[in-house]
Specification:
This protein has a single domain, classed as Thiol Ester Dehydrase, Chain A (Roll). It is 28% helix and 32% strand. Bound molecules: Palmitoyl-CoA. One of its GO terms (cellular component) is cytoplasm.
Length: 170
Amino acid sequence: MEAKSPSESRTILTDLVLPSETNPLNNLFGGELLARMDRAASIAARRHSRRIVVTASVNHVAFNKAIPLGSVVTVEAVVSRAFKSSMEIYIDVWVEDRESGRRSKANEAIYTFVAVDETGTPIQIPALEPESELEKQRYEAALRRKQLSLVLAGKMKPKEATELKALFED
Ligand SMILES: CCCCCCCCCCCCCCCC(=O)SCCNC(=O)CCNC(=O)[C@H](O)C(C)(C)COP(=O)(O)OP(=O)(O)OC[C@H]1O[C@@H](n2cnc3c(N)ncnc32)[C@H](O)[C@@H]1OP(=O)(O)O
């Protein structure tokens, strides 16, 4: 199976914040943003694997900035590392200033998707070859995040999480 580059999975969704999608402070609901991120991430995972994909885990979400009603929001998802059947998807959320058009980073998230066959059994996917410096950094750190996610899910013993342990031993 031929390795793929992150740009082959990059998925960009741009949409408005409508009144029905806001909280009492007139900012975008967290749940609405999670849904937009899940949608973009699933397309990125599908583009990388060309298989049926399912969300295995939401590893990290940070709501750093509230996103006001009427904002133009861009959700950018890309595969940051591919393992055997699972993929880490890194999501950056940008908000566009209505006056200047300048984009600022509002949130980010990290999801894990697994490629499966028609019976729901995990299936082998192509490797990922990072190219830019940022892609390489995210690729390197992805194994630690996978181990942390597996430990939290009770699917890996902490003592087996060697990459994760190394982080605390530096
Ligand atoms: C083409 C362009 C246009 C496309 C245009 C249309 C595209 C449009 C696409 C629509 C796509 C809709 C996308 C909906 C996405 C949902 O919303 S799916 C619904 C929510 N998710 C689910 O229902 C999943 C339910 N869970 C499961 O089915 C199983 O637990 C899983 C995820 C398949 C894993 O199964 P398992 O028996 O644990 O299998 P196991 O072999 O142990 O693990 C498999 C891999 O997952 C990893 N893993 C398992 N759990 C975790 C965890 N908690 N954390 C991290 N990794 C984990 C394992 O480490 C392993 O990784 P690899 O070493 O193989 O890489």
